Design the sequence.
């Protein structure tokens, strides 16, 4: 397991060296010598597990840096400890009232610094673990519905800014109740794991996400993807599930597990209030795919026209 | 007695790394001339904010290095500087500079009693290998870059820009150091 990462923000090289030497054996350290530089470090890389932030710095002080970091959604939960030679009670109170996890006075005692940092890192890692568990489907390891809704919300905001097409694919495993009745729920769980793996294997871009939406239903979002590319991806989903070759003697459309897909695309010509309408349309397209005999792909725009 | 500098406390704060502690003390004393020039400039134009900033910065560094008497003097000066006249400020600066000289003497005495072990270099690495390793660390703002400058020191006499690069890294100006390093790699 890799070491937790700590970002040290201080304009004084000596302070960085002294602080780093206390903790370098236990953590991976990143350095920023100003508030602006700290924001750049946070923007360009993986978020650290903790930030040690000096208060008095030229141009942007620690309090302002703190506020700017907190404004960024992705960094809102990183614990921040102020380390400062401002030793008045009011200074400490101000830092803690802002929302800092802790406030350490300079010159510091190395043992106390290490102990306090460890406390906050342990807490952060446990919080991360719980957060991860709350966003992951325990059976398939895919993002769960809650995680998907959060992701879709972010991508929806991105779509509203950029007006580049976004596609959703809703997926249902054909005759899955019959599968469970035939093979039992344990085997049904195994099948869902295999299906999840097969769907995930089609995802190549970091912003594309496939999730388990509930029961035998999966869902995928593809930003900057038009309907024709989405149809190709839905077809790829079908091919990979077929290739997984999960026997399904109770299916009425194949001798192995198959899926039905409902597609919807939103582009710059559409005027949706929110993404709920999009989900509704994807669901209707999926319903239509099932009505047309399953193991097929239906685009919402094609409902009433043709099914593929 | 730990007059001027509490060596034991300073070394303890650095996890017992005496070599690093003595290096940091030397670097601190080397940097004070520039800091005091800036401080005198700020006093001359009565830039209270800059005066406090500089005093605060030196106070923090001296405290972390356990240069105890100096830290105490800087702390008092920082607390009261707004109420001081320019002349009073300059008297304090003079007193503080004298204290720095005494601290420096103390440091030199201590150092002569306890010679610093030579740094362990890696003679097998070429300049380009050292620079490539550093580039990755600088791009990721990793602290460890500062520990890798040891590898560069043997190249200083053949490449004058290397010393500038080392200084930038030791001051944790990683973005500027990266620019300089890329220039060196391209042979500019």
Sequence:
């Amino acid at each position: 397991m890799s070491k937790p990462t700590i970002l040290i923000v201080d304009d004084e090289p000596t302070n960085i060296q002294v602080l780093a030497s206390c903790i370098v054996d236990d953590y991976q350290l990143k350095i920023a010598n100003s508030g602006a530089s700290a924001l750049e470090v946070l923007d360009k890389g993986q978020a650290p597990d903790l930030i040690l932030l000096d208060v008095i710095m030229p141009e942007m002080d620690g309090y302002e840096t703190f506020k700017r970091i907190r404004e960024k959604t992705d960094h809102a939960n990183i614990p921040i400890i102020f380390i400062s030679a401002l030793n008045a009670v009011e200074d400490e109170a101000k830092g803690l009232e802002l929302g800092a996890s802790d406030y350490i006075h300079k010159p510091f005692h190395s043992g106390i610094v290490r102990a306090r940092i460890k406390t906050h890192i342990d807490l952060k890692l446990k919080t991360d673990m719980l957060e991860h568990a709350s966003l992951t489907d325990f059976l398939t390891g895919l993002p769960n519905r809650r995680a998907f809704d959060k992701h879709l919300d972010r991508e929806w905001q991105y779509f509203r800014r950029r007006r580049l097409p976004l596609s959703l694919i809703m997926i249902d495993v054909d005759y899955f109740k019959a599968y469970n009745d035939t093979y039992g729920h344990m085997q049904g769980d195994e099948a869902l794991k295999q299906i999840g793996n097969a769907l995930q294997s089609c995802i190549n871009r970091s912003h594309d996400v496939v999730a388990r939406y509930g029961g035998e239903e999966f869902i995928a979002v593809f930003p900057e993807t038009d309907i024709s590319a989405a149809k190709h991806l839905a077809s790829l989903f079908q091919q990979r599930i077929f290739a997984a070759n999960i026997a399904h003697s109770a299916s009425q459309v194949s001798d192995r597990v198959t899926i039905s897909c409902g597609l919807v695309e939103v582009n710059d010509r559409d005027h949706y209030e929110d993404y709920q309408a999009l989900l509704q349309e994807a669901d209707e397209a999926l319903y239509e795919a099932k009505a047309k005999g399953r193991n097929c792909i239906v685009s919402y725009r094609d409902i009433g026209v043709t099914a593929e | 007695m730990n007059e001027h500098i509490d060596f034991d406390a300073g070394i303890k704060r650095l996890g017992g790394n005496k070599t690093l502690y003595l290096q940091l003390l030397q670097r601190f004393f080397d940097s004070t001339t520039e800091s005091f020039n800036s401080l005198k400039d700020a006093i001359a134009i009565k830039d209270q904010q800059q005066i406090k900033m500089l005093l605060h910065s030196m106070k923090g560094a001296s405290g972390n290095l356990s240069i105890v008497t100096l830290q105490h003097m800087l702390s008092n000066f920082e607390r009261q500087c707004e109420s001081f006249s320019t002349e009073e400020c300059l008297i304090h600066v003079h007193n503080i500079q004298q204290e720095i000289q005494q601290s420096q003497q103390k440091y030199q005495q201590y150092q002569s009693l306890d010679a610093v072990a030579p740094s362990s270099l890696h003679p097998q690495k070429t300049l380009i290998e050292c620079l490539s390793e550093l580039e990755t660390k600088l791009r990721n703002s990793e602290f460890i870059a500062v520990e890798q400058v040891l590898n560069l020191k043997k190249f200083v006499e053949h490449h004058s820009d290397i010393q500038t690069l080392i200084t930038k890294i030791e001051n944790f100006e990683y973005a500027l150091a990266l620019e300089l390093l890329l220039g060196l790699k391209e042979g500019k």
Remarks:
- The mean pLDDT of chain A is 92.
- The first strand of chain A starts at residue 5 and ends at 9.
- Chain A touches chain B through 37 residues (CB under 8 Å).
- The two ends of chain A are 47 Å apart (CA to CA).
